[in-house]
Every structure is written in structure tokens, then in C-alpha cells.
């Protein structure tokens, strides 16, 4: 979503304006001069357009220490913004500090809207036109406290934003799509047959849905699922004719067509390269993942010991995968598959509200800042969740981050918000 930064001297009413725009009493921190305040980002929406609004500390150029830190933060927020709202107190008029801020904003070359705040009546509105002298064009007179003028301002904000990306294509209605994959002989067809037996039917059609003839509809755990490309599994065709290469293409296509994959492993045998390739297909495609260890009836205490070690070693890239131990032969724990699929999909589609995300992130980067590199430590300014399915996060920063630090943020993000069963992407956008 586009980023709108709210900048201005302390006490001009930035937080009140942010509250007005997000329509909630969330940014309640008082704008006290000299009090350092971190940037806080929130989700906002106007006329159906979503954006992120970043409340900055009060901008005081050339002042010492804390005020300087605030100025640096404001500049950093401007650098990452798509649109800047520069707020002036219309009762005070423009000050030297405002003029210095305008010079900084000019250098940033970002679209800037001049907001004349605390304009509570028509007379003050006429007086606010004197702010043209700041050279930022037409001032937008508003009363953040009472709401006056905020609609016109937001219309102008939308105008100044970059063109919207095409809307997320809504998930087609109908059953959730599952790929049941795994190397030959791990028990895919046995599991499919077991599901058909346990759950009464692999149904062939559901009212109002059209299903590819190579797919199956299955009733699992009280819900209908579309199992992608199971024709070969059901009829046991193509087993002899397909080379490993074509089998692998087919697996990849099934994963692509699905939302969640059940990767079947043979728990009675070591995890091998071919299993790893299939797991990589799932994470690279960004699909939700349930790992099913099949043939659990063959796992005795000895094997269990070695399997645990194999899991630690071979699956350490995907500690977040949901694991289920099943037996297609005995039916053991087959009923755990549907809840696992539901949980993985819910996390795959999870959206963390921007305010919540940033409150957590601010505390995290304060407690554990990025290590110093060459005398400087890049700072994380704020974050947004760019998309879901799978969840993708963007960190706005003052510079490139160590890969290790990005992994640390991802690990903490998973701990805090629970992304079990889904890959998560964290990318870094250093300010320009
Ligand atoms: P696919 O190639 O992945 O479809 O695997 P199959 O379903 O054809 O199974 C391969 C072999 O493993 C067959 O001999 C099955 O009977 C056997 N098998 C499948 N699941 C289990 C299980 O849970 N326990 C045991 N003991 N054998 C299994």
C-alpha cells in the first residue's frame, strides 16, 4: 500500500490528524515539544483506497540531541513515503522552523500537501491562505479535531498517490485446493484410498462447482476439498510411462494449482534428495504446507530415534511446517489432516494490522537493534504487510540489513503472530 508520512513541528496536531484519518483513537500520544516519539504506522482507507499513514515525531531542525533525532526520523519517514502531509498550525502561521522543513521537503522531491491545521471556522480559513507564502502551493485548511476539511484533504492525498496496483484477484469460490504430493511409493494413492474409505466418498462433483477431470473432490473432516491432479493416483496410470522428470513437472504443476500442499514422506525411510526437491517446490511456490509422515505403523522406537535426528537435520529450513504422523494402512491420525490443512490455510491468509505490527516491531528493534557495521547501524523505520497467501512483509529501513538480522526479524514475527504452516517473505526497502 502507498505510504503517507505526516510531518510538522511539535504541537501542530499531527497525531490528532492521524486519528482523524484512521477514524480511531489510536495515535493518542500527545504532541509535546521536546518529547521523542517513534514513528507509528497505521492502516488507513479513503474511498476504498488503502494506504499506510506514518505519524512522525515533531520536526525541529538544527536543535540538539533528541530534537535532532526526531528530525532524522521525520526525514527518514519522508524518504520512504509516497506522499507527505506537511502540517502547519494556522494560528501560529509559518515559522523559521517551518521554512527549514520546507527546504528539506523540496530536497526529497516527494509530492507534499500543505495542511493548515486548527482552522475551526470560515474566517480562519480565509486567513490560512497566507500560507501560500511557504511555496508549497494551495494550503488545505482543516480542523483535525473537529473534522472540518479532512475529506477534501484526503481526496487530494489520493490524487497525489501513485496509480493503484490492480486489485488482488479474489480467490475463486469453491473448495480449497490441495496438492497431495510426494516421491513414488510414499503412499499417496494408499492415502487417497484411505480418505475415500474413512470419509465415505471421494465425491465427483459438488453443486455449483466445476472441477478439472484430473482432480478429485474429497470430503475430509466435514469439508469438501479439491485434490489437485489425482487422476493418476486413482487409476494408477502413467506409473510406468512417466520418467522422473515428467513426474516432477507434474508435481510442480499440482503445487502451483493448489493453495496448500500435503507433502507425504515415508517415515520408515530416510528423508532423501527427492523429498527435499518437492519441499523446495512448495516453499518456492509460496504455498501453505502440511508434512505428513506416512507408514507410521512401521515406525518403532529405534526408527523414531533416527527420524527425530533426520528431521532436525534435513528439515531445519522449514521448522514452521505442520507435521502429522499418519498411516494410510491403519488409518491412524488421518483425521488430523483436515485440521492441519485448515490451520495452515488460515495462517497463509493471515493479515497483521499495520498498527499492531509496528507496535511490536518498534519494541523489537529497540530491544535488539541491528549490529553496528562500519561505525553505523541501519535502522528499521517501520513495516507493512504487503500481501497475504503467503504473507509478505516489507521493512522500511535506513540501509541494507544483514541477512542474519532479517532472519531474526522473521523468526520473531513468526513467534509473535503465528505463521505455522506457511512460508513468510520478509524483504527490505532501504530509503532512497
Ligand atoms: P504412491 O506411489 O505414493 O502412490 O504410493 P502407494 O500408495 O502406491 O504405496 C506404495 C507402497 O507403500 C504400497 O505397497 C503400499 O501398500 C505401502 N503403504 C502405503 N501407505 C502405507 C502405510 O501407512 N503403512 C505401510 N506399512 N505401508 C504403506
Structural write-up:
Pfam families: KH_dom-like, MMR_HSR1. One of its GO terms (molecular function) is ribosome binding. This is GTPase Der. With 432 residues, the chain is of the alpha/beta class. It is 35% helix and 21% strand. Helix 10 links the parallel strand 11 and strand 12. About 2% of the residues have low confidence. Strands 2-3-1-4-5-6 form a 6-stranded mixed sheet, sandwiched between helices. A 6-stranded mixed sheet has the order 8-9-7-10-11-12, sandwiched between helices. Strands 13-14-15 form a 3-stranded mixed sheet, sandwiched between helices. Guanosine-5'-diphosphate (GDP) binds next to helix 6. The site of guanosine-5'-diphosphate has 16 residues, from helix 6.
Quick structural overview:
This is GTPase Der. With 432 residues, this protein is an alpha/beta fold.
CATH topology term of the largest domain: Rossmann fold
State the shape: elongated
Structural class by sheet pairing and helices: alpha/beta
Radius of gyration: 28 Å
Mean pLDDT: 85
The named CATH superfamily of the largest domain: P-loop containing nucleotide triphosphate hydrolases
Bound molecules: guanosine-5'-diphosphate
Order of helices and strands: EHEEHEHEHEHEHEEHHEHEHEHHEEHE
The number of distinct β-strands equals: 15
Second rung of CATH, namely the architecture of the largest domain = 3-Layer(aba) Sandwich
**What count of structural domains?**
3
Strand content: 15-25%
Continuous helix count: 13
Report helical residue fraction. Answer: 25-40%
Q: What is the strand arrangement across the widest sheet?
A: 2-3-1-4-5-6
Biggest pleated sheet: 6 strands, mixed
Distance between the termini: 17 Å
List low-confidence stretches: 27-36
The level 1 CATH classification of the largest domain is: Alpha Beta
Protein name: GTPase Der
GO biological process, one term: ribosome biogenesis
GO molecular function, one term: GTP binding
Keywords: GTP-binding, Nucleotide-binding, Repeat, Ribosome biogenesis
